């Protein structure tokens, strides 16, 4: 909801954004002085062991940021775009259901597909899907939002696993140390959040003062960015290996993924996080504007993303600082905080200022959890099965979201507070999963991360 149509009466103070950004940069700049692994005062980005990896990391983060902008541009208008084309509330719910159903039944298969045919081809599919939606919305007077939602849902499914998998595989092929890969993980979350803010600024600038005439404005930059992405992938990526056969892949997946209780714990915790994030983005605006309250939704949205940027900078402090903790322990604490935040929101009516503060704390924890999950996947999941494992963890979240959309959107059987409470319960189970994962220890399939 990046474009605000009505006047607003409440918005965060500009000092809030300044404080968040200052905290981010202070965290990044001061970290090398407090890191137990750093003996000289260098910047965090000097950990790279060779100029070749610095070039790889820079090109990867550029492409990842470009893809993040494409992902964020389509969500700026939100329901306003659907209402502009005459879509009713019931049809909006149906569009969302179709999108999540496609992510559940088709998107879940793209992860194993990327393991089999390589991440390069699947990333090209990601760019082509965005290119198709951009062209479709530009040339069609009344574009089918069912088709658009299906394409964008599949693109989002690819975005959630393909880039990370490619980065890890290239890291292993080049033989670099794991601490550099850890830097890449939190930088992905940091740049993704910054790019989402940039996409909101870009779309609002293109729209200008006439929202109705500018409703198709995102289509032009989306097509342009998708074409740049295709060029970057085609010329800059090297093809990854292929699994010998589908039968062998299925056997390996059953043995090393479904047969490993530690990976199942990690997958369930990841599914609970994805479900909570999806529920948040569905309900945060209705929660803030309850009882007729008027707020500046677009500005608050940027505040949330800034909080997630801040959370991502906490990750290197937790794993490499002088008082570093095991990743599983950090996640237990983070999930408990998330569960408490959601419980407070579900239990009682809150003032806008309190709600925004709780929502920001939610995103700080999410910003720390995302790179932590990526690190645990590197420790437990074989690279050749990584895409399939992440797709597996997305399936329960997509199924649960599809269920609540039908129950809440059509039958009105679930109240918002009940849904948030159910989400909090799932987060607490994720904390239990991380506690069990810590007790059962770790035995990584890859040995290079110890170097």
UniProtKB/TrEMBL annotation:
Record field: transmembrane: 16-35, 56-76, 91-110, 145-163, 184-207, 219-237, 263-284, 296-318, 330-347, 353-373, 385-406, 418-437
This protein's GO CC annotations: membrane
Record flagged with keyword Transmembrane: yes
InterPro entries found in the cross-reference section: MFS_trans_sf, MOT2/MFSD5
Keywords: Membrane, Transmembrane, Transmembrane helix
UniProt cross-references to Pfam families, sorted A to Z: MFS_5
Keyword tRNA processing tagged: no
GO molecular function, one term: molybdate ion transmembrane transporter activity
Protein name: DUF791 domain-containing protein
Lineage start: Eukaryota, Viridiplantae, Streptophyta, Embryophyta, Tracheophyta
């Amino acid at each position: 909801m990046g474009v605000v149509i009505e006047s607003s009466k409440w918005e965060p103070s500009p000092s809030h954004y300044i404080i968040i950004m200052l905290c981010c940069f202070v965290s990044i700049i001061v970290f090398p002085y407090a890191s137990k692994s750093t003996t000289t005062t260098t910047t965090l980005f000097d950990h790279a062991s060779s100029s070749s990896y610095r070039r790889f990391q820079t090109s990867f983060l550029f492409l990842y940021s470009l893809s993040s902008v494409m992902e964020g541009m389509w969500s700026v208008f939100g329901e306003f775009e659907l209402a502009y084309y005459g879509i009713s509330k019931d049809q909006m719910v149906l569009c969302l259901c179709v999108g999540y159903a496609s992510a559940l039944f088709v998107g879940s298969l793209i992860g194993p597909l990327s393991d089999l045919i390589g991440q390069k081809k699947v990333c090209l599919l990601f760019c082509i899907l965005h290119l198709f939606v951009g062209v479709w919305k530009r040339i069609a007077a009344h574009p089918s939002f069912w088709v658009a939602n299906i394409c964008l849902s599949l693109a989002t499914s690819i975005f959630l696993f393909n880039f990370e998998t490619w980065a890890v595989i290239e890291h292993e092929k080049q033989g670099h140390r794991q601490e550099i890969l850890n830097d890449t993980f939190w930088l992905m979350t940091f740049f993704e959040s910054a790019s989402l803010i940039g996409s909101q600024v870009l779309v609002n600038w293109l729209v200008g003062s006439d929202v109705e005439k500018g409703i198709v404005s995102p289509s032009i930059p989306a097509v342009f960015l998708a074409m740049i992405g295709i060029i970057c992938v085609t010329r800059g990526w090297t093809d990854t290996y292929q699994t010998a056969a589908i039968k062998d892949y299925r056997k390996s997946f059953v043995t090393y993924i479904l047969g490993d209780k530690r990976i199942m714990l990690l997958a369930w915790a990841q599914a609970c996080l994805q479900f909570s994030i999806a529920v948040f983005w569905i309900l945060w605006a209705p929660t803030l504007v309850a009882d007729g309250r008027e707020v500046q939704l677009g500005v608050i949205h940027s505040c949330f993303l800034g909080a997630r940027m801040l959370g991502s900078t906490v990750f290197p402090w937790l794993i490499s600082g002088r008082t570093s903790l095991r990743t599983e322990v950090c996640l237990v604490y983070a999930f408990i905080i998330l569960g408490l935040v959601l419980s407070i929101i579900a239990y009682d009516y809150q003032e806008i200022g309190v709600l925004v503060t709780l929502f920001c704390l939610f995103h700080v924890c999410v910003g720390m959890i995302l790179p932590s999950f990526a690190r645990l996947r590197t420790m437990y999941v074989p690279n050749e099965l990584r895409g399939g494992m992440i797709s597996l963890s997305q399936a329960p979240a997509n199924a649960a979201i599809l269920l609540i959309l039908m129950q809440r959107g059509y039958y009105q059987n679930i109240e918002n507070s009940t849904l948030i409470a159910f989400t909090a319960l799932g987060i607490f189970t994720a904390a239990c999963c991380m506690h069990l994962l810590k007790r059962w220890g770790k035995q990584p399939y890859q040995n290079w991360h110890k170097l």
